[in-house]
Amino acid sequence: MRGLGKTRRTSNKVFTRRLLAVGVCGAAVVAALTGPAQADGAVDKGSSGAKPPHWELKDSGTDARFRGLAAVSRSTAWLAGSKGTVLRTTDGGAKWRNVSPPGAADLEFRDVEAFDGRRAVVLAIGEGEASRILRTEDGGATWTESFRNTDAKAFYDCVTFFDARHGLAMSDPVDGKFRILSTGDGGRSWKVLPSTGMPPAQEGEAGFAASGQCLVSSGPRDVWLATGGAARARVLHSSDRGRTWTATDTPVPAGDPARGVFALAFRDRTHGIAVGGDYRADQASPKAAAVSGNAGRTWTTAGTPPPAYRSGVTWLPHSRTSALAVGPTGTDLTRDGGRTWRTLDTGSYDTVDCTPDLACWAAGEKGRVARLER
């Protein structure tokens, strides 16, 4: 479960106690990223000239491509990827345990939502029965398949949870509308919601299963769905756990099956960031990010967007203005709520996630996984 959007304002005393509780390393990373910038816009290294925050690669022991990432804490994270691979660490990435479900080698896991170090839900994508949801309650020692798609027209892309019991999953349009699954028991069972409250899809419109962030939630009832592949890239919003939706156009490039909004992040029910572009390496991605300050009712192009396509985005913990975006060509940082972005790293990552105890993780191709360090 992504809990970053649920951050609330706290007093300085409470925040200080949190930093002391989780250790100075994570706090230093966030402080360095969100602190004052130098004249040239570079991240301030501090008076000591210390190395700025950077991604520290962890050896995952596999070459799977990880587009699913659930960061639980500085020590615990889950990965889900190609060839039915699911990994889990409980020691900060020093070791990764292969907890892949038996017989899943032909599945493509693109999303994982974790409640803690033992309970998690993974989503496999694909047409027909290739789309599945599995759940574990014992750290991946055993898995239970709780949903298998039987509609040949459906293709599930992402899953999100409001809390430990209530969650949704979304499919590309079926009979002209996006399809929504709902659970009220932590992913043990799922049901298709009525489509009466869903607006019609555009011709060719779909979600992108690129980072597990095409369906995101914040708070107990609000959820957003990102789209592309059609004439306009849109964001759909529901304030009643997926029963009724409104659709809004975004300025993110569209008009092609490879273009659109690939990922969303909301730090609360009002403030959101959308990233995307054109995933083809030989195509430019201008206007690859947009921001909203009214729950997604309107979107404004970033004044200085990321320089290329980005597939994942997350708010920094306990920050009202700073966020990270990642893609195959690098990581970008914003410190003004998504209006301007600056490249922080040029390594390839598909997805990114941060935790309340001040840890940020990223994952991507060829088994790449990293944690932000200083």
- Biggest β-sheet strands, sense, barrel: 8 strands, antiparallel
Distance between the termini: 26 Å
Low-confidence regions: 1-24, 37-48
**Envelope shape:** globular
**Mean pLDDT score, rounded?**
90
Radius of gyration: 19 Å
Strand content: 35-45%
Describe the protein in words.
Strands 6, 7, 8, 9, 10, 11, 12 and 13 form an eight-stranded antiparallel β-sheet that branches. This protein starts with 11 loop residues before the first helix and ends with a strand. It is 6% helix and 38% strand. Residues 1-24 and 37-48 have low confidence and may be disordered. The chain is mainly β and 374 residues long. It has helices at residues 12-22, 24-34; strands at 54-58, 66-71, 77-81, 86-89, 97-98, 108-114, 120-127, 132-136, 144-148, 155-161, 167-174, 177-183, 191-192, 215-218, 222-226, 234-238, 246-249, 259-266, 272-278, 289-292, 300-301, 312-315, 323-327, 330-334, 342-345, 351-355, 359-363, 369-373.
Primary descriptors:
374 residues, mainly beta, eight-stranded antiparallel sheet, 28 strands, 6% helix
Put the structure in a nutshell.
With 374 residues, the chain is mostly beta strands. The chain is 6% helix and 38% strand.
